[in-house]
């Protein structure tokens, strides 16, 4: 996979209402914003990074991530992703939520390595907890179940087709891979991990802060002569 064929898309236009600290992309974690975490993880592997933030925050975002192209998002994440996909001309797009700050290089490499053989893929991890159906208390077999994470990657034209079909049908999905599956296109799963956690609530942010503190000594050790 040649880098010049790939763009990274970062939807970061949410209000962050559940976190309660304003637009989530601008929340600071270990000295840098969630938006900066995301762009830094993706930029070495792609030809361009395109970011969508709330309209009022475009200039602030451009100052934070000058090596990314910043645009304003839409009212929903789904509509924002469609705008991002239309804003690039690259054949392949890697889509990653700014709310998942700990994207690592190995995961990005695994995604890119899988792309030439798949038109769509999603990072995910097997469900580890026991599951119960709250309606009747019955146990749910977790064996075939995986929790969806990001990044996800797609042939750009396929992603645009999936979004157009969903809009025409009035379909809303919680992830873009689900929209692609509606077109009967298989989505390959790439193993992720618990480190790709999503920061949504104040409790998530506290966990992320603890994880980030654990990363710093390792980074310092790696840079030592």
Annotate the secondary structure layout.
Blueprint: E1 6-11, E2 28-29, E3 32-33, H1 34-42, E4 48-53, H2 58-64, E5 69-72, H3 77-86, E6 92-95, H4 105-114, E7 120-126, E8 131-132, E9 139-140, E10 146-155, H5 156-169, H6 176-181, E11 188-191, H7 202-223
Helix pairs in contact: 3-5
Give an overview in words.
The protein is an alpha/beta fold. It has one domain (3-223): Spore Coat Polysaccharide Biosynthesis Protein SpsA, Chain A (Alpha-Beta Complex), CATH 3.90.550. 35% of the residues lie in helices and 22% in strands. It is built from seven helices and eleven strands. It has helices at residues 34-42, 58-64, 77-86, 105-114, 156-169, 176-181, 202-223; strands at 6-11, 28-29, 32-33, 48-53, 69-72, 92-95, 120-126, 131-132, 139-140, 146-155, 188-191. The strands form three sheets. Strands 5-4-1-6-10-7-11 form a seven-stranded mixed sheet, with helices on both faces. A two-stranded antiparallel sheet has the order 2-3. A hairpin with a 6-residue loop joins strand 8 (131-132) and strand 9. The longest helix is centred in the C-terminal third of the chain and has 22 residues, at 202-223. The chain is globular and about 50 Å long.
């Amino acid at each position: 996979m040649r880098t010049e064929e790939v763009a990274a898309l970062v939807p970061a236009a949410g209000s962050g209402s559940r976190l309660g600290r304003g637009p989530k992309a601008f929340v600071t974690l270990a000295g840098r914003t969630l938006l900066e975490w995301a762009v830094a993880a993706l930029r070495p592997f792609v030809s361009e990074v395109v970011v969508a933030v709330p309209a009022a925050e475009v200039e602030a975002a451009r100052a934070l991530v000058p090596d990314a192209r910043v645009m304003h998002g839409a009212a929903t994440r789904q509509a924002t992703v469609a705008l991002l996909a239309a804003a690039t001309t690259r054949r392949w797009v890697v889509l990653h939520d700014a709310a998942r700050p700990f994207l690592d290089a190995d995961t990005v490499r695994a995604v890119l390595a899988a792309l030439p053989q798949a038109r769509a893929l999603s990072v995910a991890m097997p469900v580890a907890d026991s599951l119960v159906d709250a309606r009747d208390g019955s146990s749910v077999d977790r064996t075939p179940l995986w929790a969806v994470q990001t990044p996800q990657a797609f042939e750009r034209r396929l992603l645009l087709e999936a979004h157009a079909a969903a809009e025409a049908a009035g379909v809303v999905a919680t992830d873009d891979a689900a929209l692609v599956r509606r077109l009967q296109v298989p989505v390959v799963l790439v193993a992720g991990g618990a480190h790709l956690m999503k920061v949504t609530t104040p409790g998530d942010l506290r966990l992320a802060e603890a994880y980030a503190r654990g990363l710093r000594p390792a980074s310092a050790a790696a840079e030592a002569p």
